[in-house]
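In response to a reviewer's request, we include the raw inputs and outputs for one of the modeled complexes. The three entities were modeled together in a single run.
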Amino acid sequence: MKTMKLAIAALAGTLLAGQALAQDKPKELVVGIATFLSGPASVFGVPGRNAADLLIAEINAKGGVLGVPLKPVYVDEGAGTNQLLSEYRRVVQEQGAQVMLGAISSGSCNALAPVAEDLKVVNVMWDCGTQTIFEDGKWKYSVRTQAHAGAEMMATLLYLMKVKPDFKTVAVVNQDYAWGRESWALLQAGLKALKPDVRVVAELFPKFGAPDFSTEITRLSALRPDVVISTSWGGDLDTFVQQAAARGLLKQSTFVLPLAESSLERLGNVLPEGVIVGSRGDHYWLHPKYKNTPEMQSFVKAYKDKTGVYPIYPTFHMQQALTGLQKAYEKAGAGGKWPSKEEVIAAFEGLEFKSLTGTITIRQDHQGLEDQLLGTTKRVPDYPFAVYDKMALYPGKLVTTPLGEKSLDWFAKVKPDLVTDKSIETFDYAK
Amino acid sequence: MARQLVFGAALIAALAVFPLFSPWSTVILTVALCEGLAALGIMVLLRAGQVSFGHGLFFSFSAYAVAFMAAAKVGHEALVLIPVGMAASGLLAAIVGLFVVRYRAIFFGMLNLAISMVFFSLLEKLFSITGGADGKRVPRPTFAGVEFGREQFELATFYVTLVLCILAALFVARYLLSPGGKALEAIKSNETRLEYLGVSPRKVLYGAYLLSGLLAGLGGAIIALVSGHVTPELAYWVRSGEFVFIAILGGIGGVAGPFLGALMFQIIRGYAAVYAPETWHAVLGVMLLVIIFFAPAGLYGIVAGKGGKAQREEGGR
Amino acid sequence: MPPEMLLLAALDGLAYGSLIFLVAVGLSLIFGVLGIVNVAHGSFYAIGAYVAAAGVLALGAAGLPTWLAFPTLLIAAALVGILVGGLVEIALLRRVYGKEEVLQLIVTFAVFMILEDAQKVVFGVQPYFANAPMNWLGTVEVFGIFYTTYQLILMPLVALAVLVGLRFFLRRTSFGRAIVAVTQDREAATAMGIDAARVYLITFIIGASLAALGGALASATTSLTPGIGAGTLVLSFAVAAIAGLGRIEGAAVAALLIGLGRSAAVYFAPEFDVLIPYLIMMVVLLVRPQGLFSTVQTRKV
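The model returned the following structure tokens for the whole complex.
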């Protein structure tokens, strides 16, 4: 019986702790951060958290947001959606988080958006990409500080058309979950509009986390498509590229890997020249326009000192989310008063702020406009891994689905003159 | 016996007042109760010495049934969705049970695992229907005809769940004392003798299987409503393993055991999520080992003391 | 579809089947002797893979010749089997042999949860790979398609060697015979002076080493990420169940069946490749619950 009392007391302790909520300027601003700390997607989640630790320490060292220091609380997305939802609630209701950054997976974002509405908490979607969130729904409390899959895939398509205009056959090998399916649906709609004569020779959706792609690679070797597209990432992408490279497939077809920036350093000498790579935005630590800015140099150095590797796109997404948040608070609290959550979320609309690699604009539907950088791999003596060359920078406005339209419809009517639009800047690799 | 009643009442009372003091705990407690229901189903089977590593099947089946109905606006009412979801899993258990009750021990466990993994793979693969790995959103239905806001809906669901859990626990307790329930223990100890007595072990086990499927289905239906989202992960074998984990953690000596186990599971997970977000699996694993080696009758055994089901004396300490 | 494609699909299935066989045969052996379904088996696979990859990477960093990677894979597998497997047997399993099956199962489940996190703490979450051995062996060309020698020839050879070696060990060596004797009748074997505890320990170490060997071999071809153990475990469950638990030759046939079924699915019904192993497992269990290759159930309850 004694044990039971103890257990109940422990339960009560957890439940009752930290109920205090302040409407005036709080002692600290609790920011809940949903990220993958376990499971295969922790290849993004843990860099995201490392960046958050670094950036928050930096913000706090400079006096915090409106003089209030930030306090991060992490929630593991890898524990499953149901567990994530209750953890998310707990961080808001028990730990008094005023802002949540959630999340990486589009599935999580879809699940969290209505919860954020219910809880009336500012929810910054810091990494997830599905375009359907703000196209199919209207969320007052959620905002996204980066581009969506529509912009990412449109830029990929335009770049492919620019550097390899004469391809006839294409195959796709995507992970079997929403991102893999949705990104292919978009690309396919766009291909049909831009190059109606292209033949899709194989659509393969291996299981998420598949350890072996031998059969897929054999099929592709036999089919010999001009272009192989894969929006895979993390361990899946690494495995696929390794096995394909070992069997000569990378030389046989042009590979389009829109998320490969996050694998470049790990893949080292596996990735040859001539592969089309992207980073879900304009993020690249060797960004042709921004690599020498003091902000970028100090970020790259701090991150590399802390983790031993170069920053990848989730760390830039985290930087955008935290910077956007800080700017929104500053805008909402310009009168000297601590802003309410509603004032903060309202301040996001139309907000424009500088990220490490460009400028982000938040549209009135809470979708961020962000430029897209694509390139072709090149091997240089400066680094033991491939770098971007023949880069093209697509302005966010050009490649993002216009307000009020759905991406799939917009892709279906895209015009070829977009490929050569004047606003696209190009760069070559320079040391 | 009296001690168990007092303990049960204390547990219920504690649960009933908790959410009033700390509103955020409502959902977590509801989730714990849902997992407790599934673990209660596991416990019924454990009484017959059978372990299922596939009850995620029934848990997820009703959850998806609810998700599909709610999305199609069919019966957009919590008090309709819960029994219908439960009935759907019951029906599935009635069919699956026809096959699995012929097997015992490891084969029983494996077959359950195989069937649930087939369902899991289908949920992931049939992307256009099920939403694949990202799952489906479950729009919040009305409750007894009323459109509740979030807090009231959560509170109402919690109390309905609590009542349903009490009813389920009482029913299972009665069932275990009934001839059918007694026969279950005979399957574990000596199945042949049961046959000599003219009782069909398969029929007995079939009844238990149906009951366990219904219980898991009830838990799944509610969890779909309260979290507003379903994913294939509900059917994954690790989830099924957690139900067995919870049943063992709580102890199978009494019907309060699985609920106790589920609450403890959530508490540990909650603490671990705060203090060891990267190693909460390990924390749970160590906890389980401690229970198995030092209190094999589970939490229930600790609480109920020697008056509990003292199958293994060392557990009653 | 040209007929040679069938052969090509079969070649892919062979490599994949060999890998699952290594893991499944360890699981099967442990069950056959100890009567325990070892859920932590997937973790041995994963840890074997991580340790082997770390070893191979260390070799590379030290500038040593690449061929040394092959003995490194073997050493890594044996180390993991002896240290991790041995520790689990001595510290935990030994205490639950007399207990209910459920309890034994759940102990290994707890070990699985602990080891999953231990991997993350030790090796981190970034994908980890060491492909030097695969690239070093080069490729072979079949009908104009390149295969890696590593996957097409080395992996099936290792699987074959393990199969033949295990058969020889169990039938021709005195310790192997002692294992068989303990499996058939522990009391009688003990009465004859066989140290059953030692037999259990060594069997468990062998089984764990085989899983680790599977992981070590896989580490050259695939990226290691958190969670690889869980997926492999269910697959090897399927193989062991299809073959009949405790059946060693059966496991080889079943692994091949799954490998071929899966690669056939990628050609003819790509939507269903993940379903194949579980469907085969379900059908086999329904028709022949003791598995395809078991004759009579000899284990006593």
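As requested, we also summarize the result in words. Chain B has one domain: 2-316. The two ends of chain B are 17 Å apart (CA to CA).
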